[in-house]
Design brief:
Low-confidence stretches of chain A: 12-21
Low-confidence stretches of chain B: 1-20
Strand content of chain A: 5-15%
Mean pLDDT of chain A: 93
Membrane topology (chain B): Multi-pass membrane protein
CATH superfamily of chain B: Outer membrane protein transport protein (OMPP1/FadL/TodX)
Helix content of chain A: 25-40%
Number of helices of chain A: 15
Shape of chain B: elongated
Number of domains of chain A: 2
Largest interface: A-B, 42 and 45 residues
Number of domains of chain B: 1
Distance between the termini of chain B: 18 Å
Radius of gyration of chain A: 25 Å
Strand content of chain B: over 45%
Pfam families (chain B): Toluene_X
Number of helices of chain B: 5
Oligomer: heterodimer
Order of helices and strands of chain A: HEHHHEEEHHHHEHHEHHEEEEEEHEHEEH
Number of strands of chain B: 21
CATH superfamily of the largest domain in chain A: SGNH hydrolase
Largest sheet of chain B: 14 strands, antiparallel, barrel
GO molecular function (chain B): long-chain fatty acid transporting porin activity
Helix content of chain B: under 10%
Largest sheet of chain A: 5 strands, parallel
Radius of gyration of chain B: 22 Å
InterPro entries (chain B): OMPP1/FadL/TodX
Strand order of the largest sheet of chain B: 1-4-5-6-7-8-9-12-13-16-17-18-19-21
Shape of chain A: globular
Number of strands of chain A: 15
Subcellular location (chain B): Cell outer membrane
Chain lengths: 447, 414
């Protein structure tokens, strides 16, 4: 009966539609937005460079604006989210730490990357820190909600001298806090968020991996973090953020290092293509091999940063005299240990990654937090996917996800991650926080 | 004289819109019929029988010319799938589908000869360059014009047959964004533009009036393939050599089916003044399997693109009434239900189709013995439809379309 009235009503409305409504098509339902079980009044993002909006091998204003925490906060604002303060560089210093841009691509597809060195926030009035030159301090550090600090690991988050090491952390501290040896954990726990995101741990393996599996003696954070130490610090950090259950949040784990283009772009096949020499063999240093070098094999990864050194004409002293030998193309001038992640190192890193990820997932589960398995996500998209008519993959430059450093994401990549986080937050907390149109964010700009 | 007439029609802006019918068929072929749900196959109303039923044309007592035009305003709204909240609205130009019909025969002759020029298929949709689905479509303009010389023979007062030769021509223009941004962040763009080759088809019909109060019509309009050969391909892409190497095409070929139609119509005239008509129309949309573009080079590394459409045959149900108030005024009303040919999973922004409901009204003013003026108004409301568009490379989301179409025709009888 009701149905009949509905139909009659519809017919009446239909016939009179022209007179009673505007000329616009209307949807039957309004947009649904709900915060579910969440209180989003104070969101705090805890993490490393990925959280800061680092891209193109630098932290600069554009990347900060399009950081995934800022996108999340924007979407949270539809569901009762409060203000979100990011430690922006000023307009005058909008290029922040400096970064690299794509200046050109050769006919064979080799990119030319050029540094951007103007309008930096780099300080020349103070001594550099071990982690690099100091950066202009953020004036309103007490209000910061995006605590993404490039370079930080779980291990260093508990290190009380870190304000004297990492310029990205130092710029968020007052001089007094640096002197008082305030740790990162102390700072983020003190913010007392109602909701937080925690994506930390990448650098507990990645710093080692991006150095080709070579730890630097002078840097205590350049090796892989021991499991027990990671567990203790991680649980302290997560526990501090949860505040005994007062805060809810989402926790993310560590991606597989071999799922990012920093490790997958330069291969023997790609070098053969760009040199036009399909007989070319790349040699890498291996102490176990006869003469200390062997041809590269499946499972060895050449670092993206090694590309610039390949084929460099080096003077090599042989018994017959000094000759010029292209770097990496001959057993007498193989790629160095810090230019390649060999398969033994890859295995070490993968093992450690899964050990640390087990701790992260366990921590998330026991605190009943939402969990985003980024490790699985990046492994699942290795073969690519398509969305809104755009193809995505982990390919360097052309894959649309990764920025010019091959580790960090493009603004569009960060927006996709933000949407994936929202999907999991919605599922875990019975919320309907809207996702964002990722096509409005840029990928790599092609000259 | 004839060529001048055709040139005039050719230069007129002939276009229709997506919101007018299932797929890209346009249900605006005669102003009297538009006023009563586009019913007309079983009726003898005027020279537009050249389109509606060539078999009925010979039952028109008078010779005449009819010129009509509709002013079509269609609007489509888009919303991304939940929990997405992005919305977009089309900014379609006003479409002006046009009809021209003329017939002639000696007064007592059973023969009638006619010519019709009409736009049975067309679509104009403009989503712009910013919406979420812009890599699927910015803008599409599709037009088919049929020119139909027709002959009709009145076998008796109760029976007639007719046939017309369809000469089809048309054009297509499709634009979409390419997901490559230059150093200034400007997105790439591709435009495909071409004219279709002249193609032939036919339109045949029979008309019967077994008793005075009842008439019947049956028509068949054949499928015509609109084929574009060597249409122009234009790009705007970043200048880097490896990118340019992926976009070498300058010409494209494509074929779009303009499906066949079988229509059965019935007319019931309980009194002198009242006519009730009903049509059932089957549209052979099953012919539209895929939208394929073949290139003379490559576009994004591919020498062709093919997106599945997989339409199904669909039916349109029409009902209309006409009442002759007096010698000067006739009024009409009607409506139709047009079932969509687009299957679930195949929705696209070119034709974000759904079941259409239309209501319409109209009137004819007899200004003099020789001149009539037809006015019509129709409103089309498509059902809101949500689709994953995962089988058509379309843009997933919810679509809703409406259209408002006033129309006007002048009839001159001699």
């Amino acid at each position: 009966m009701k149905n009949i009235f509905h139909k009659i009503g519809a017919a009446l409305i239909l016939s009179s539609a022209f007179f009673f409504t505007g000329c616009e098509p209307e949807f039957e339902n309004d947009i649904t937005v709900s915060r579910g079980e969440l209180n989003l009044s104070k969101y705090v993002a805890v993490g490393n460079s990925l959280t800061a909006g680092f891209q193109d091998n630098g932290l600069y204003l554009e990347g900060q604006v399009y950081s995934y925490p800022n996108i999340l906060a924007n979407q949270f604002s539809f569901a009762g989210g409060g203000a979100f303060v990011q430690p922006y560089f000023s307009e005058a210093q909008s290029n922040g730490s400096g970064y690299i841009r794509l200046a050109g691509i050769s006919a064979t597809g080799s990119p030319t990357l050029a540094p951007v060195t103007t309008n930096l926030a780099v300080r020349t009035d103070a001594q550099p820190l071990p982690g690099g030159p100091r950066l202009t301090k953020f004036a309103d550090a007490a209000k910061v909600q995006n605590w993404g600090v490039p370079g930080i690991s779980v291990l260093s988050s508990a290190y009380n001298e870190y304000g004297n090491v990492n310029p990205y952390f130092e710029r968020l501290l007052t001089d007094a806090e640096v002197t008082a040896k305030t740790t990162y954990i102390q700072k983020v726990v003190a913010t007392q968020p109602t909701f937080f995101s925690l994506w930390l741990g990448n650098n507990d393996v990645l710093t080692y991996a991006t150095s080709g599996g070579v730890a630097v003696a002078s840097n205590p954070f350049s090796n892989m973090t021991p499991v027990a130490q990671f567990q203790a610090i991680y649980q302290q950090l997560a526990g501090g953020l949860v505040q005994g259950g007062k805060a809810k949040g989402i926790v993310m784990n560590i991606p597989d290092v071999t799922s990012v283009p920093f490790f997958t772009t330069v291969t023997q096949a790609s070098v053969r293509r760009s040199t036009g020499n399909d007989q070319l063999v790349i040699y890498i240093r291996d102490e176990a091999a006869p003469n200390g070098a062997r041809p590269i094999a499946d499972g060895d990864y050449i670092l993206l940063t090694t590309q610039a050194n390949l084929g460099r004409q080096d003077d090599v002293t042989l018994p017959s005299g000094t000759v010029k030998i292209p770097h990496g193309f001959h057993p007498a001038n193989p790629l160095n240990d810090n230019e390649v992640l060999d398969k033994v190192e890859v295995a070490e890193i993968k093992t450690r990654t899964s050990e640390l990820n087990a701790i992260i997932e366990q921590t998330a589960k026991s605190a009943n937090l939402a969990f985003f398995d980024v490790h699985a996500y990046f492994n699942n998209i290795k073969s690519g996917f398509s969305m809104s008519g755009i193809n995505y993959s982990p390919a360097f430059i052309t894959g649309n996800l990764f920025s010019l450093d091959g580790v960090h994401l493009t603004p569009r990549g960060y927006a996709i991650i933000a949407n994936e986080m929202i999907t999991r937050i919605n599922a875990h907390y019975k919320a309907t926080i809207p996702t964002i149109d990722v096509t409005q964010f840029r990928a790599v700009l092609i000259p | 004289m004839k060529s001048k007439f055709l040139a005039f029609l050719g230069s007129a802006l002939l276009s229709a819109s997506i919101a007018t019918a299932g797929g890209y068929q346009v249900n605006l072929q005669g102003q009297k019929q538009i006023g009563m749900g586009h019913v007309g196959t079983g009726l003898v109303l005027d020279q537009s029988s050249i389109f509606f039923n060539p078999g009925a044309l010979a039952h028109l007592r008078q010779n005449g010319i009819q010129l009509g035009v509709s002013a079509l305003t269609s609007k489509i709204a888009y919303r991304s799938l939940s929990p997405g909240i992005s919305e977009a609205r089309t900014d379609n130009p006003m479409g002006t589908p046009f009809q021209a019909y003329a017939s002639y025969g000696a007064e007592e002759s059973p023969w009638r000869f006619g010519i019709g020029v009409y736009t049975p298929y067309g679509s104009t949709v403009n989503w712009g360059n910013y919406w979420q689905g812009r890599f699927g479509l910015n803008e599409l303009s599709l037009q088919a014009i049929y020119i139909q010389p027709t002959v009709s023979y009145r076998i008796s007062d109760r029976f007639g047959v007719g046939a017309g030769l369809i000469i089809s021509t048309g054009s297509v223009n499709l634009q979409r964004s390419i997901p490559l941004q230059n150093a200034f962040g400007e997105e790439g763009h591709i435009e495909l533009d071409g004219k279709s080759k002249t193609a032939l088809g036919f339109n045949v019909g029979v008309y019967a009036r077994p008793i005075d109060k009842l008439s019947l019509g049956l028509t068949y309009r054949s499928k015509v393939d609109a084929t574009v050969e060597a249409g122009d391909v234009t790009f705007r892409i970043p200048g880097a050599a490896p990118v340019a190497a992926q976009f070498t095409a300058t010409e494209f070929d494509a074929t779009l089916p303009l499906p066949d139609n079988i229509t059965l119509g019935i007319g019931f005239m309980p009194t002198e003044r009242l006519t009730i008509g009903a049509d059932i129309q089957r549209v052979g949309w099953g012919a539209y399997k895929a939208l394929r573009f073949d290139f003379n080079g490559i576009v994004g590394g591919q020498d062709h693109t093919e997106a599945q459409r997989n339409y199904k045959d669909s039916y349109i149900y029409r009902l209309g009434v006409q009442y002759k108030v007096n010698e000067m005024l006739t009024v009409r009303a009607g409506g139709y239900l047009d079932k969509t040919p687009v299957r679930s999973g195949y929705l696209t922004p070119e034709t974000p189709d759904a079941d259409s409901r239309s209501v319409s009204g109209g009137l004819t003013l007899a200004l003099s013995e020789k001149i009539d003026l037809d006015l019509s108004f129709s409103y089309i409301n498509k059902k809101e439809r949500t689709d994953l568009s995962d089988k058509s490379s379309g843009v997933p989301g919810t679509y809703k379309a409406v259209a408002y179409i006033p129309g006007l025709a002048v009839n001159y009888k001699f």
